[in-house]
Amino acid sequence: MSAASQARRVNPSLQIEVFEKTEWVSYSACGIPYLVAGDVGDVDQLIARTPAEFRERHIDVRLRHEVVAIDAENRKVEVRDHGRGRTITVPYDELLVATGARPREIELEVDDPSIIHGVQTLDDGIRLLEHARRIGCKDVVVVGAGYIGLEIAEAFVKWRGKVTVVTGSAEVMPSLDPDMGRRVRDAMIGHGIEVVCGQRVTAVEGGRVHAGRHEFPADLVVIGAGVQPNSEMAAAAGIPTGINGAIDVDHQLRTAVPGVWAAGDCATSFHRVTRQPTHVALGTVANKQGRIAGENIGGGYATFPGVLGTAITRLCELEVARTGLSMAEAGSFEAVEAVVETSTGAGYMPESRDMVVKVVAERRTGRLLGAQITGGDGAAKRIDAFATALWNDMTVHEMAMMDLSYAPPFSPVWDAVLIGARKAAARVDARG
Amino acid sequence: MSAASQARRVNPSLQIEVFEKTEWVSYSACGIPYLVAGDVGDVDQLIARTPAEFRERHIDVRLRHEVVAIDAENRKVEVRDHGRGRTITVPYDELLVATGARPREIELEVDDPSIIHGVQTLDDGIRLLEHARRIGCKDVVVVGAGYIGLEIAEAFVKWRGKVTVVTGSAEVMPSLDPDMGRRVRDAMIGHGIEVVCGQRVTAVEGGRVHAGRHEFPADLVVIGAGVQPNSEMAAAAGIPTGINGAIDVDHQLRTAVPGVWAAGDCATSFHRVTRQPTHVALGTVANKQGRIAGENIGGGYATFPGVLGTAITRLCELEVARTGLSMAEAGSFEAVEAVVETSTGAGYMPESRDMVVKVVAERRTGRLLGAQITGGDGAAKRIDAFATALWNDMTVHEMAMMDLSYAPPFSPVWDAVLIGARKAAARVDARG
């Protein structure tokens, strides 16, 4: 929908049709956990723009219309109209594939699929909420420990049931290094969530989740083990895919097939730190890519400058954020790290909260590679200073003297960002 | 004290003497308003390190020792020892002038100086607090509307007296543009503070503050009209001063006189946006300059990379921040501005608060020149992303696609920083 809107802004005379499989467009999938938690009272609040609003801009939105095949050679798509139970063929000049992603499939023995939920689309969220309301949620098990899974786990704490997170990875939130993930786990345990790491779930049978020798009673199971791009239809049409199975795109978000573009969770991105293609399924990236694709399809010119892997969340009163590469992701970069335990405000301010910042830098060059933050209110948005520094290929040495803001309610006189950079610089210098 | 500590780290054999006029070293002057407000219960909490801690590191701290003259030619200082009532002469190899700043002198007719207070040193703060406790503060008048003055005004709201701010400038907080300052004023008025702009205070007589045709009863008057560097003694010793009367220094913080260095509120800085000397009297800058000077004096090598004029505060529940140049400061840069009214979190999150971001960019080039923020909890620390972008001379066009963090508790899917940059870029493009 971002692409459609931007194409319309650029070119008022374009004919724009949008086919959407579900009954919803332009919503905040990231808001689903807050809907489940009851923080957001009504599903309509998650809708940014209604189909009617798009139609007013002459963007023809067709709900419950599922594109089932692309004929790139003849520039046509085959569309299943679920409302009327018919299939139509629609020609195009330019086609944007924005099919998103779905929960990663995991091999599971399941006797009752009705208790298992993904949380990718608004339909998923609504179905999950209806199920929860119907059964009351005595025992909720979340399989996987990524952002959305953990957010859903916290949401169900408010339902007063027992909530268990089971993950095959060694620590929760594997996009953080384990020392930082451990802090997230501690916050969750403090909130009454049972967390079981290093156990792969193999079956959901007889009202129980089975993981190795462990069993957990479950009247509701949420799969939060990451996503995979919906790229099969594009691949079947001969459109090349790459990392993680996502659709390969150039800087303007063209695929390798003439007239076909891709954007959002189904498409690859360029990682500015590794300088390699990557696949990031996040709303921020999808919105930006949509805008870029729409600009180009409308006849303008824009390029997508890439991603850093920036992400943020709040879990069980702990703020958590990361950008760039973790130590685990540093790969062929030789990296040093510095971990700083400090506070969100001046030590003497009663509202100051603990905060931990981890900085990852390249050996010898001192180039910033990434950062991770956990802490109380006000901690995590500091990740944007790191992200901006990463964007500009700064060294930790230069970062250490940046003119960042200070006042007692907001930071110690040396902000955590500066202390982290300084300590990382010292590690770089010590190691040579 | 930052310089002394860093010199000691670099060079364990250096002999280091510190002469301090008052009875306090190494304290947070920025914490004084919170001490007055009662948020900080005890003055000792504002002390970062005691003289004893410094002496353990073989830094010889002499309290109530006031340097009264510098003999740069013979590398000696004359020191008044207030404790023993004597004057001594002390030789040096390297001298750091770190005399700080004092409240800007304003021409005032005064019949009772005892009710008038500055809030620059901890002594000032303690005297103010004692006075307030003694008299109870029925009527407090703050003269001037800079950061510290307004923070003190808010602090006295907690004393349940009538608080009035009187300033000669057209709007409060003149380091913001007036449209943003107006939002600060509204927050203060909402807190019960009377704010009188555009009225220069001329006299404090008969228990009343006189400003033009206005009169305000006052049993306590705080001067918060900015500061001026304590540079007269250095100037008298032939050490050149520059902008605002501050001591001119090079990148290593050397003055033009051999063996003499300067750092902190008494010294000039280099402004990274204007590329001109500037004078910024802030704790962050002073700490950094102290560290750099100490490194060099100790025999290491470091340069001070300059300032952006970043500042932040929280006033009457409104967070306020700025960096770089305001429209008013743009000077010979032709500037365009964009103002964005958005929210701290996703619109549907109950904890989201209003936030306003103003972005200033150079015409044609699109170079970011500055930013200003007001808003609820979580708004203001975003200034650090702008500061980091300014540090790197980014254009608003490039900023608009940065990979900044997003989750519903923290921002809309397009963070205010990105929207502000995008709107500013559109203004740049429209204006040509």
List the helices and strands and how they pair.
Two copies of one chain form a homodimer.
Chain A: H1 2-10, E1 16-19, H2 32-37, H3 51-56, E2 59-62, E3 65-71, E4 76-81, E5 86-91, E6 95-97, E7 101-103, E8 109-110, E9 116-117, H4 122-135, E10 139-143, H5 147-157, E11 162-166, H6 178-190, E12 194-196, E13 201-205, E14 208-211, E15 214-217, E16 220-223, E17 227-229, H7 232-236, E18 260-262, E19 269-271, E20 276-278, H8 283-297, E21 311-315, E22 318-324, E23 335-343, E24 354-362, E25 368-375, H9 383-391, H10 396-399, H11 416-431
Parallel strand pairs in A: 1-2, 6-18, 8-13, 9-16, 10-11, 10-16, 11-12
Antiparallel strand pairs in A: 3-4, 4-5, 7-17, 13-14, 14-15, 19-20, 21-22, 22-25, 23-24, 24-25
Helix pairs in contact in A: 1-8
